[in-house]
Amino acid sequence: MIDFYLIRHAEAELSFKIAELVGGRCIDSMLTERGVLQARALGRRLRDEGVKFDEVHAGNCTRHLDSTILMCEEIGFPYSIIVTDALLELSQGEWEGKRKKKTFTKEIELIQRSNLLDFKAPGGESPRDVEYRMMTYLLGIKDRIDDDSLKKVGIISSANAIRHAIRGIDMSPPSETWKISINHASISQFRYKREIGWETLRINSY
Questions:
Q1: In terms of Cα–Cα distance, which of 191, 155, 196, 162 is closest to 2?
Q2: What is the number of other CB atoms lying within 10 angstroms of the CB of residue 168?
């Protein structure tokens, strides 16, 4: 068995801009002071739950890596972090950092709602693209790890990437995916058993 802990990074500076600006990957966005506290609290929580990861993976951006390092420090275990682009947030391509009012017009929103899985910004990714890369990565870990005993894998990523991974796991309708709340420093835990496949243990636990 393998337990996958899909963990959203702690609060970052980007969080205060996405009400007006298009977010996306924004790889240099740093944690806020509150985010630092959240990441440390997450690590203490995992430590108190007795969680010792067999592997820890994080997206190659500042908020993912800083959250992961702080979390691991509090768990008190000397992890070697596996860093990858596969866990980054959905890319908004040419729209990243631009004002939402100028990009997500009523016409664009109508197009997006009519094609929830395949809509993408110019030069960006669609939800289907993100689901594919997230699931490819998770299944790659699953195929590599011997799951005769319980293994625990920490995956530190971003909200939309985690949402689309959840859709890939439970095959929920695309219209339901956007309704899943994924809070900062939250844990969504899934167990893979060779005999039966995926089990959902918790979503957005924080």
A1: 191
A2: 21
DSSP β-ladder status, 151-157 and 2-8: parallel
Is 89:55 a contact under the CB 8 Å cutoff? no
Element (H, E) at 114: helix 106-114
pLDDT confidence tier of residue 79, bands split at 50, 70 and 90 = confident
Among 17, 138, 8, 106, residue whose Cα is nearest residue 61: 8
Q: Strand 151-157's sheet: what is its strand order? A: 81-84, 55-59, 151-157, 2-8, 187-193, 197-205
> pLDDT tens digit string along 166-186?
999 998 888 888 889 999 999
- For 27-60, write each residue's pLDDT tens digit: 999 999 999 999 999 999 999 999 999 999 999 9
